[in-house]
Amino acid sequence: MEKIAVTFLGTANAIPTEKRNHSGILVSFSNENILFDCGEGIQRQFRFAGISPAKITRLFISHWHGDHILGIPGLLQTLFMSGYQKTLHIYGPSGTKRNIELIRQLLPNIRVSFEVHELSEGTALSSNDFSIECMQMWHGISTFAYAVIFREKLRIDKKKLAKLKLPNSPIIKELTKGNDIKIENKTIKASQITYREPGKKITIIMDTAFNENAVKLAKNSDILITEATFSVKEKSLASEYKHLTSQDAANIAKKSGSERLILTHLSQRYEHIPQIIEKEAKKIFRKVSIAKDLDSVIL
User: What is the pLDDT of residues 8-28, one digit of tens each?
Assistant: First the structure.
């Protein structure tokens, strides 16, 4: 089974704290290292996590508030000085092309190849192995939440394959496509030595008030990551600033049928008492935890 790693590079909200950096979540698998949001100082967080920033392949921006994007100039500078050879694909809501161009003008000597994709609701990216879906949230400006969906795969049972004592051959890959093969006058049926690896889903919901789009996007997530900026006791503030409370986040998890909920983007007021947020959420949804900077989750 392919390893999928989620690394929390930053878990603070608008004001970073001693323990929490501005937002950034890295989803790593196969040849992809996809960064969701790029808070200030994110390139140092990569280093603290023991991950080279130059491994990044794509950047998805939820919205253009400072705590989610102020790390972009520094990240681009680090990539340039590291000899970044790839094309960085940058995705985000309306206005992303204009804002990235402003950053480029601010840093004219930083020559990093990138392509900018402005999104509308629906499929942001699709490949043979995975897709990324996006839906509009409710935060006062254009804001997207994202779901990374890994497709079901047909895998070869290596023990069964070994028993057949077949020579190495490129044709064996045909089995993973569900095709029967013939090798050394033997017919090998795909159904005999393959199994289906279930798909996986990771949903990332940053700044937003509670809305049904969040529930719809998160449906049947293996991991649901949401902001939980405020305690339920601060519900009026959450409403004013269009953020989720702990119980809003838990309700999204429950209504969407998600397997696991991870909370992030906590207000600095809970720096020393994050358990308040966790306890409130657990009243509604049992399998919940609070993300800390540099936490890594393997799916």
Answer: 999 999 999 999 999 999 999
